[in-house]
Amino acid sequence: MNSSAPIGIFDSGVGGTSIWKEIHRLMPYEHTLYLADSANAPYGDKSKKRIKELSRKNTELLLEKGAKIIVVACNTATTNAISELRAQYDVPFIGIEPAIKPAALKSKSKSVGILATKGTLGSDLFHKTSGKFSEDINIIEVIGKGLVHFIEKGQLNHPKLKSLLVSYLRPMLEAEVDHIVLGCSHYPYIISAIEEIIPSHIKIIDSGAAVARQTKAVLEQNKLLNREKNTPRLEFFSNLETSTLTYLLREYESEIVIEKRDF
Ligand code: DGL
Prior knowledge:
- The protein has helices at about 15-25, 50-65, 75-90, 100-105, 120, 125-135, 145-150, 160-175, 190-195, 210-220, 245-250, and strands at about 5-10, 30-35, 70, 95, 110-115, 140-145, 180-185, 205, 235-240, 255-260.
- By secondary structure, the protein is an alpha/beta fold.
- The strands form two sheets. Strands 4-3-1-2-9-10 form a six-stranded parallel β-sheet, with helices on both faces.
- The two termini are about 25 Å apart.
- The chain binds D-glutamic acid.
- D-glutamic acid binds near residues 11, 12, 15, 43 and 76.
């Protein structure tokens, strides 16, 4: 594998760009290829079988385009499909999972909230991880049903989104959580809406930066870090419309290419 090949990243839609931003910040010379499978969003309500099929489809497209590593920038796809992907394809995979561990270790109230999709919270991988902490920590799991719909449309302050958040965060506030883990890569885009609802002492934990560090470490281990210091190719493909990608990535407008493709 060639170290100047791109890092391939996929998500059910635009949310994984929150992870792309961390990857690009940490490794500014890496070429990247991002697939937003927005036509199939949300993954969170789909069966495990369907999530695996979609994850394979995205992986194969990224591999056809020469990706040297695949970042599964989606908690739902990671928790339901990454072990099969690793078994099937001969390329390193990096996944994202709700960061329960740091939240559990830091919690003083011994109560933490997790906001994630149904697919993530219902997965064996999530149960395995949360099971390690659930004896000592009260874990309030809430399905963020419907949130991805607004984020996919770029409606980050929509009144309906805010009223959903009020109802999803209420059980966490009642349980006196001091950490809220964002278990979906779309949710970093609604941190301000969340902060309007919760008291300021509650910390919001998201794993994007940790995923970028892990991606760098695995590239280094495999001698796949790009040694060339040229302007990178930063390509984004969506199989729906591209306006939300354009909006969320507006600060990178002059550096990136966004295209609509069928996949
Ligand atoms: N962004 C995804 C995640 O991290 C999936 C959201 C969805 O499509 O339901 O879980």
